[in-house]
Amino acid sequence: MGLPTAVTTAGSLIGGWQLARRTGNRPLGGAVLATGGVLAGREWARRTSPAVTAALLATYAGAFGLSHPLARRIGAWPSVLVVSALTAAASYAAADRHAPR
Questions:
Q1: Which of 33, 44, 51, 93 would be a feasible disulfide site paired with 16, CB 3.0-4.6 Å?
Q2: What is the residue-level pLDDT of the chain in tens, covering all 101 positions?
Q3: For residues 41 and 60, what is the distance between their CA atoms, to the nearest angstrom?
Q4: At what angle do helices 76-91 and 50-74 cross, to 10 degrees?
Q5: Cβ neighbours of 25 (radius 10 Å)
Q6: CB 80 within 8 A of CB 13
């Protein structure tokens, strides 16, 4: 087993946002986000069913989408941390918790 998908998803959401913010290059942040989605998606497909994989991918993409309007209400850092934590929790519960070590 490689890196838990909970770490991959949370790390790529936070890392992609920070990279885009610090460099001013949104596509570069998007590339980090996409890479995290591909890496986690491959592990989800290996460990779970197609339906669970699709649900986790939708959660990951939805978290990115939700972070933008949420940031207007609670601020950027809190928003990214909230969606990252929720995505990590979903990844852990659905794919990482019972993965072989």
A1: 33
A2: 578 999 999 999 999 999 999 999 999 999 999 999 999 999 999 999 999 999 999 999 999 999 999 999 999 999 999 999 999 999 999 999 987 76
A3: 10
A4: 160
A5: 12
A6: yes
Q: What is the 3-state secondary structure (H, E, C) of the chain?
A: CCCCHHHHHHHHHHHHHHHHHHHCCHHHHHHHHHHHHHHHHHHHHHHCCHHHHHHHHHHHHHHHHHHHHHHHHHCHHHHHHHHHHHHHHHHHHHHHCCCCC
Q: How far apart are CA 6 and CA 2, in angstroms?
A: 11
- Please tell me the predicted confidence (pLDDT) of residue 2: 78
Q: What token pair was written down for 33?
A: 């986000």
